Structures are given as structure tokens and as C-alpha cells.
Amino acid sequence: MLPRFFDIHAHVNDASFDEDRNNVLERMRDRGVWAIMVGTDYKSSQGAAIMASFSESGVYASIGVHPIDDKKERFREPFFADLAVGPRVVSVGECGLDYSRLGDTNDVSTEKARQRELFETQIDFALAYDLPLMIHCRDSDKALADAHRDVIAMLVDKKSKNSKLRGNIHFFSQTIDIAREYFAIDFTISFTGVITFSDEYNDVVRLAPLDRIMSETDCPYVSPVPYRGKRNEPIFVEEVVRIIAEIRGEDFETVRVALVQNALRVFNITTHI
Fold first, then answer.
1. Which parts are annotated binding residues for a divalent metal cation?
2. Where does a divalent metal cation 1 bind (predicted)?
3. pLDDT tens per residue across span 185-205
4. N or C: fewer beta carbons within 10 Å in the chain?
5. Nearest alpha carbon to residue 223 among 233, 238, 215, 213
6. Number of domains the chain contains
7. Coil, strand or helix: which one is 239?
8. DSSP codes joined into one string, 38-96
9. Residues within the annotated binding site?
């Protein structure tokens, strides 16, 4: 059985769900929502993998190290390798570059180099295990697109050496021109509940090819309308799908089915059903 909706980036492994995690998962099952639980360090990646392995069909895991959540965290390949062979681990990340807080560091060039090294290690790991990337990317200034430019340059270089490289840019927050650079190297982008209360990304939602976009919540953060102010959870992804269809002027059912199929394709989940 296929899902009705797919939240490709969730953090139900987060501590904010400790008291009612099973209820959240039950609501997902009742509403036909599948989701990928995303790690940001080894501990949360391990938690995501364990949750996926012990849950019923519809819960998957992504393992990786976030660029700035804990700057002391390293991608310890032997430990992550043990997780990568899990039957429901479907991607590597969230990993990438985040230049939004460069003002907090004394040496910008050193900090950028640290992030690029951490990201490159995870790109190579994803290629070694034939897994897509779950990429986090945030610029110091949207107009500069500096982090995205660096991510694209790194991906283009790696793609030229290994055509298997693929993945998704989660919580996409750039222009359609930047999006098209990702599409050109066979990457997709995904949207959160932000698009239900901001029209800043309407052009991207409208102009992106339907087979290149996906839906996510990034829960417990950025709850969509009409749940603003409440803790976000995977079942709210339906509102993201609804607004995508509305912005595009397309039939809701057509968009719903397409986004599910995109998730299954990008994360090769048909082999795990």
C-alpha cells in the first residue's frame, strides 16, 4: 500500500516528541502519511534509524551531521557505516553548508573550510553507499546565495566524477534560477509550511517542474497554516501539498500523487515497501 502523503523531512526523533511519540506515529498511520526521520548528529541519526527499524511501514531514516548545530560534531564514518546498512535508512544528511551565522565566528574562512570538509565527507559517504543526500543549505544573505553557490560547485564537481550523485535540497529558500541549477544536476527541492503563510517562494513553487519538488514539515518547526503556534508534526504535510497545488493552479489529487511518487523515486523507497 502506498501513502497518501509523504513528509520527506521530519524530526519526530526530537526530544519535543518524547512524551507522545507513539501517538504522533499512530496519527501518521491513520492518515496514510509516511515520513523520513532525519538525524543532525550521530545520536539523533541513531535514534532515527532505530525508530525506522522498529516502526511499521512508512517510517524511514536519514543519517548525517548538520553543518552548524554542533560545530564539534564530526562525521565518524565507522559508526555511521553501521547505521547505513539498516533496511530503512534511505539518505545521508541533513548535511550541507550554513553561512547564516558566520558573524558568530572569528575566522570566516576557517569556518567555511570546516563546513566544506564535513559536507564533502558525507557526499563521499553517500556515494559509497549509493544513497541520496538530504541537504541543508542556508546563505548569509539571500541575494548573495553564497552557501548555495558553494554547494552547487561542490555537487557539480562530484557529479562530474560520479554520475550516481543525487539528492534533495530540503527547506528550499532560494530563487527559481538557483533551483534550476540543482535540477540540471538531477537534484530536487522540497518545501515546508512556510509557503502557507509567505508568498516569497511562490514563483519557485509555480515554475519548478512537478517531478522535481517534494513536501516536508521539518517538524517540530515551522507549522503550516492553520496550525501556526502549535508544534508541527508529519500529518500537517497535507497543508503543504494543498498550498503547492493552489499556487501551481493544478488539481490537488494530481499534485498529491506526484509528490508521493517523487519521494518514492528519489529515496528509492519502492524497494523497502
1. 9, 11, 94, 136, 170, 218
2. 9, 11, 94, 218
3. 999 999 999 999 999 999 999
4. N
5. 233
6. 1
7. helix
8. E-SSHHHHHHHHHHHHHSPTTEEEEE---SSS-TT----HHHHHHHHTSTTEEEEEEEE
9. 9, 11, 94, 136, 170, 218
For residue 105, what pLDDT band results from cuts at 50, 70 and 90?
confident
53 pLDDT higher than 90: yes
Does the pTM surpass 0.70? The reply is: yes
What nine digits make up the cell of 267?
529515496
Q: Which domain holds residue 132?
A: 5-271
The SS3 assignment for 213 reads strand
DSSP class of 195: G
Q: How far apart are the first and last CA of the chain?
A: 8
Strand 133-138 versus strand 167-169 pairing type? parallel
* 271: pLDDT strictly greater than 70: no
Which CATH number is 130's domain given? 3.20.20.140
Quickly state the pLDDT bin for 163 (edges 50, 70, 90). Answer: very high
